Amino acid sequence: MEFVERPWERLLDALRTVGTVTDTDRGLVVDVDGRTVEIVMTPKDWDDMPVTWGYYPDEHVVELLRSQPPDQDFLVYDLYDLESCATPEIPPDPGLVRLEGLAAQYPDGVIPGAGWFAYKREGVRDYARDAQPDGTSAGPVEPVEDE
C-alpha cells in the first residue's frame, strides 16, 4: 500500500484522467465529455472516507462520475460516500421528516394513543405465566395451544 501524503491532490489527479477539474468553495466541478458534474465534498470530507473504505477510494469516485445518471448533476458527500443527486444537497429522508414533525407536535415525547406493545407469538409458551415462584422456568419451551 502506498503512503499518501496529500490525499486530496491524489483525488484531483485521478479525476483529471477522465476530465477537467476545477476546485470550488464547496467541492469540485468536473467536465467529462461535455457534461459537468459537481462533487460537493470538502478536503475534510475526503479525509474521512477511509473510515469505512480502509483506503482513499479515488477509483470509486471516478467510477461514480462515469456512471452518473443524466438527470443528476451532483455527487454529494454523505456519511463516508458520495450520492448522486439532482441538487447540491441530499433530499431529506421522508421518515426523518415525519419524526421531526411528530417531535415538534409532541415536545414531551408522549403521543396520545401511541405506545409499545408486545404480542404473544402463537404456539409459544408464556414464560411469565409458566415461571416457578423461585423465578426459574417451568421446563422446556414447547408449542402449546392457545387457551
As an assembly, this protein is single chain
Biggest beta sheet attributes: 5 strands, mixed
The total count of strands amounts to 5
Q: Give me the strand/helix succession.
A: HEEEHHHEEHH
Summed up, the helix count is 6
Physical arrangement of strands within the biggest beta sheet: 1-2-3-4-5
Query: What is the global morphology?
Result: elongated
Task: List unreliable stretches of 5+ residues.
Answer: none
* Radius of gyration over all CA atoms, rounded: 27 Å
Topology:
Elements: H1 7-16, E1 20-24, E2 27-32, E3 35-40, H2 43-48, H3 50-53, H4 58-66, E4 74-77, E5 82-85, H5 94-105, H6 127-130
Parallel strand pairs: 3-4
Antiparallel strand pairs: 1-2, 2-3, 4-5
Tell me what you see in this structure.
This protein is of the alpha+beta class and 147 residues long. The chain has a domain at 7-85. It is built from six helices and five strands. The chain has helices spanning 7-16, 43-48, 50-53, 58-66, 94-105, 127-130, and strands spanning 20-24, 27-32, 35-40, 74-77, 82-85. The protein has a five-stranded mixed sheet with strand order 1-2-3-4-5, covered by helices on one side. A hairpin with a 2-residue loop joins strand 2 and strand 3. Helix 1 runs parallel beside helix 4 (58-66).
